[in-house]
From TrEMBL:
Keywords: ATP-binding, Nucleotide-binding, Transport. Residues 6-235 form the ABC transporter domain. Belongs to the ABC transporter superfamily. It comes from Berryella wangjianweii. This is ABC transporter ATP-binding protein. The keyword Cell inner membrane does not apply. SMART domains: AAA. The lineage of its organism: Bacteria, Bacillati, Actinomycetota, Coriobacteriia, Eggerthellales. InterPro entries: AAA+_ATPase, ABC_transporter-like_ATP-bd, ABC_transporter-like_CS, P-loop_NTPase. GO terms for molecular function: ATP binding; ATP hydrolysis activity. It holds the Pfam family ABC_tran.
Length: 309
């Protein structure tokens, strides 16, 4: 699609016969913030490396800003700002000197005023001549974002940008990224193994585990699925789904990842009536309860379902 800045189709990567990514299909729409979520070793950094041209895929096809041939993709990578997991900074230089040197290295035409503007944007304009080696970890991560902003890219790709930060540092980086998206329309792909860090900014999510995409979902749909729900445990989930759907047309019923669980969303003040309906209809219920879902719990449920598949 024309409004996709990234498109991956059947992308895989193996090392000595061992898969790191397996048949990944992925698309990122212009103007969105996508959270790439997965445990350590899920394949997030490998996927980002392929997008950035740092890793050659074993199979599959890719498009960047609509370009599909190798030369066109490489040309479009100039529109990407990249922040790696580790800080790639010059410790004996100031923040300003780091940005100016990167401009020279990469051939970016960036004036002194533009450099100062980026430093102000990331909250480092007052750092002055202070050397990066004396920066806090939060300041280093913000400077890494500043490096990624050189040339005003249309797409930011950030690999674990809040890794190692304290809570205040995480908030700082999050506010910065949300501001870039809202004020400049910057499309952002940001990876993290901590789902709660992404909840305040992502408009969509891509869940990875063991090199596979488990699910792609919008933030609205994810929040809905993680809201209050009735959990019914039964040995006949299929019958429970049918009976509840017919008897209570205003609710949504779904079979959970956990075996023998049915989740009911909406009209939960009638929870006891729903359970009574199941028992009266010949569906055995071993237990039931109303719970508030968590994003972490949702992801763990996906992992469990992926293992069973």
């Amino acid at each position: 699609m024309a409004n996709n800045v990234i498109e991956l189709s059947g992308v895989g990567k193996s090392y000595r016969g061992r898969p790191a990514l397996q048949s990944v299909d992925f698309a990122l729409r212009s103007g969105h913030i996508c959270g790439l979520v997965g445990e350590n070793g899920a394949g997030k950094s490998t996927l980002i490396g392929i997008i950035m041209g740092l890793i050659r895929p074993t199979e599959g096809a890719m498009a960047l800003f609509g370009e599909r041939d190798a030369r066109g993709i490489q040309r479009q990578r100039r529109r990407i700002g990249y922040m790696p997991d580790a800080n790639a900074l010059y410790p004996y230089m100031s923040a300003r000197q780091n940005l100016e040197l990167r401009c020279l290295e990469w051939g970016i035409d960036c004036s002194r005023s533009e450099v100062e503007g980026i430093l102000e944007e990331v909250g480092l304009s007052a750092a002055g001549r202070k050397k990066v080696r004396a920066f806090s970890l939060g300041m280093k991560r913000r400077l890494s974002v500043a490096v990624a902003l050189l040339g005003r890219p249309d797409l930011l790709v950030l690999d674990e940008p809040t890794n190692g930060l304290d809570p205040s540092g995480i908030v700082e980086v999050r506010r910065l990224l949300v501001g870039l998206n809202r004020e400049h329309g910057t499309t952002i792909l940001v990876s993290s193994h901590v789902l709660s860090e992404l909840r305040e900014m992502a408009s969509e999510y891509c869940f990875l585990s063991h090199g596979k995409v488990l699910e792609r979902i919008s933030s609205q749909e994810l929040e809905r699925r993680c809201g209050r729900r009735l959990v019914v445990c039964t040995d006949d989930a299929a019958s429970a789904l049918r009976l509840l759907s017919v008897s209570f047309p205003g609710i949504e019923v779904a079979q959970a990842a956990a075996a023998g669980e049915v989740h009911v969303y909406g009209d939960l003040d009638r929870a006891s009536e729903m359970v009574g309906c199941l028992v009266g209809g010949g569906v055995a219920v071993s237990r039931f309860h109303v719970e508030e879902g968590s994003l972490e719990g949702y992801y763990m449920g996906l992992i469990g379902a992926g293992v069973r598949r």
